[in-house]
Amino acid sequence: MTLKDVLTGLLTDDGPHYECRNCGTTLEDAEDNCPNCDSSEIATYEFDSDS
Questions:
Q1: Is the confidence at residue 22, as pLDDT, over 70?
Q2: Beta bridge partners of 18
């Protein structure tokens, strides 16, 4: 996946974006632990689509 694909997905998706702060894995839904590295450090990003 290219950086362009990631940024396009972030800008066009509705709802929050979940990402592991340890390994950077993008999660489909809010989870307590990353399925890739088992870290509990999950970041949630909310984007305003009106701007």
A1: yes
A2: 27, 44
β 26-27/42-45 pair status: unpaired
List the beta bridge partners of residue 45.
17
Q: Which residues contact 18 (CB under 8 A, 6 or more apart)?
A: 26, 27, 28, 29, 30, 31, 42, 43, 44, 45
| Span 9-29, average pLDDT | 84
Spatial CA neighbour of 9 closest among 41, 31, 18? 18
Read off the pTM. 0.65
CA distances from 46 to 12, 13, 37, 38 (A): 12, 10, 23, 23
Residue 24 main-chain phi, psi, to 5 deg: 85, 5
